[in-house]
Amino acid sequence: MSPAWDERYGSWPAPTEPSRFLKESAYLLPPSGDALDAACGGGRNSVFLAKAGMRVTAVDSSAKGLDQARELAGQNGVEINWVRADLETFSMPVAAYDLAIVFYFRDPEFYARLRASLRPGGILIYQTFTRDQLQLAKGPRNQDHLLKPGELLAAFADWKIIFYRETTLVESMASLVARKPKT
User: Fold this and answer.
1) Which residues contact 71 (CB under 8 A, 6 or more apart)?
2) What's the pLDDT at 94?
3) What is the dihedral of CA 127, 79, 112, 8, to 10 degrees?
4) Which of 32, 64, 94, 107 has its C-alpha lying 20 to 30 A from 11's C-alpha?
5) Are 105 and 159 in contact (CB under 8 A)?
6) What is the b/e burial string over 69-97, where b = at least 16 CB atoms within 10 angstroms of the residue's CB?
7) 35, 9 Cβ separation under 8 angstroms
8) Helices (H) and strands (E) in the chain, counts
9) Shortest CA distance to 125 belongs to which of 2, 21, 51?
10) SS3 content of the chain, % helix, strand, coil (to 5)
11) What angle do CA 12, 15, 20 make, to 5 degrees?
């Protein structure tokens, strides 16, 4: 589990409704296929994807988060492949996913493995805190967990950028939707 998760929410239980950004991007989801939810936390986005018809592999390092995620999946009648692993060392298969989502996790070393894990034409939905969060009174404070300006966009600049935004309102976030080139 990303430390940013604990810094944001503090204690469990984690939210159970899917991320607003994921719901807003849902029109881009493949009607079926394989999805990766990296840093899945309490499983809310994994459940959303499974209910949308995706075969989901959800990865997080928190046993507590995965316990909540399994319970949420059971309540919603969906099956998800839950994997307890640290994303800093997790070996992801190459070209295995049609969709990958990442919320509230930042590790520049992870980007290359994430890029490789998507199939050509696959969609990436990524949202996490930026360093502008430090200007606000609450939220994560560790700069290692906060994106540098333009970092996320630069990491996927050679992909088809469908949507990109960095904002500071209630929280300071970078949000990206991108498609991996087909060739």
Assistant:
1) none
2) 97
3) 30
4) 107
5) no
6) beebbeebebebebbeeebeeeebeeeeb
7) no
8) 6, 7
9) 21
10) 30, 30, 40
11) 150
Q: Which two tokens stand for residue 115?
A: 């890029």
Using DSSP bridges, classify how beta strands 160-168 and 172-179 pair: parallel, antiparallel or unpaired. antiparallel
Which residues share a beta bridge with 182? Answer: none
Q: How far apart are CA 160 and CA 144, in angstroms?
A: 27
3-state secondary structure of 38: strand
How far is 127 from 106, CA to CA, in rounded Å? 9
Q: To which residue do tokens 């930026």 refer? A: 130
Q: Cα(75)–Cα(97) distance, rounded to whole angstroms?
A: 25
For residue 126, CA distances in Å to 136, 161, 179 come to 21, 12, 12
The series of mean pLDDT values per 10 residues for the chain, 183 residues long, is 45 82 95 96 97 97 93 97 94 96 92 97 91 73 79 96 88 90 90
**At residue 48, what is the residue type?**
F
Q: Indicate the DSSP class of residue 88.
A: T
Cβ atoms 52, 27 nearer than 8 A: no
Report cis status (omega within 30 of 0) of the bond before 31: no
What the block records as the tokens of 118 is: 């998507």
